Amino acid sequence: MINLLNCAQYQPVPQQNIDSILKLLIVEDVLADVELMILALETAEIKFTYDTVDNLKDCEQLLQSKSYDAVLADYRLPQFTAYQVLELVQQSAQEIPLILVTGSLGEEAAVDCIKAGMTDYVLKERLFRLPMVLTRTLEEFALRRQQKAAIVRIQQHAQQQAIINRIVQAMRESLVLDDVLKSTVDALHEALKPSRCFISQPDTQKEMWVNHVSAATINREDCIGVKCFLYPHYKEAFQQGKIIVINRHDPNVPLALHDLIKRWSVNSVLIAPLVYQQTLLGGIVLQQCDRDRIWTDDEISLLQAISGQCAIAIHQAQIFHQLQQQTQWEKTLNQIARSLNSSLDPEYILQEIVRLTGECFDVDRVMIYALENEQIKITREWRSSEEIASLLGYTTPLSEWMASINFSPYKVF
């Protein structure tokens, strides 16, 4: 035990290096040595709180239950050594330095301690070095954490870019919209690990329906074809293309949503609207059901990037579909024109018209009807298969026909 603190050799530690109050764990069985360590740190004007232990059991309990900035430990204690303390620090998953404060330590032993993972050492007869060693060690660990965090961010960015590239590549390889959207939700589910991932799209009545659900979504079959119950309450945000974050405990969640959120066991939601040139094309919805999830900025950025690409893909697919339709219609009109020119038989011409029209629009039945004396009569018919019931020759009053199909034969399109 050393009874003197060599204050004459003390050099003040720059205050800016330690801004917050440090939490220290001191592993020492000699109370006088603990007091000398405390005095050395207080003399250097370092702000700190501390716990002291002299056995492994208490040391393990504190490391598991509390967080520390550093551990100061004697090299050899009555029942254990600093190596066992180091193991407890490593098991606690706290990335903090362990500094030896010991009476004597040979050069070979010091090298072995550093190799094992201890950060530095201070001899008890030179405790004036403790504040500087502690400060330098904490700065090194802070820099190490920053470097690790930077590496993690780079890896996350690379992973996100890889996901975006994979989705964009899939979009470029196919103009089949169903394939594009399916690959998008599957890739997003794999990357962000939500409970549910799906894309909802509006119908002609501006109602939003769930159309594409990732393969890994829980209760997947129950989600397909369901109306998106979130859309009516966040319609304005959807239209403006704003990211929507919902947490079931958020007091701003509309009361009308509470029962629906509970019924679907939803805790957290992240939505990226699909908007292209101010036109709402749908939304990508992520739901977390097993816990309250705080969506990170990186996750939100990833979803935004993918939603932008997805909106472009939907727009391009729609244009491609329109071009295909237009091409098919022109082909059908040309075939009808050739039929008209190739025959003078009206029966043949009318039958060709219904056939070509049915094949063009991919429907089950096409009919030509006549209107006589307020009666509707089916005079020509084409069916996609014999399994479709024939209506040829069917006659019904005009009023009943109009009521049954909500259609006026006089209406011009």
Number of helices: 12
The largest pleated sheet is described as: 5 strands, parallel
Strands, total number? 13
> How would you classify the quaternary structure?
single chain
Distance between the termini: 103 Å
**Element pattern in H and E:** EHEHEHEHEHHEEHHEHEEHHEEEH
How much is the radius of gyration in Å?
A: 37 Å
Strand content: 15-25%
**Sheet/helix structural class:** alpha/beta
Helix content: 40-55%
Q: What is the arithmetic mean of pLDDT?
A: 84
Shape: rod-shaped
What ranges have pLDDT less than 50 throughout 5 or more consecutive residues? 1-18, 408-413
Largest sheet strand order: 2-1-3-4-5
Provide a concise account of the structure shown.
This protein has helices spanning 31-43, 56-65, 82-91, 107-116, 130-173, 177-192, 220-223, 235-240, 255-263, 297-342, 346-361, 398-405, and strands at 22-27, 48-53, 70-73, 98-102, 120-123, 196-202, 208-213, 244-247, 268-276, 279-288, 365-372, 375-383, 395-397. It is of the alpha/beta class and 413 residues long.
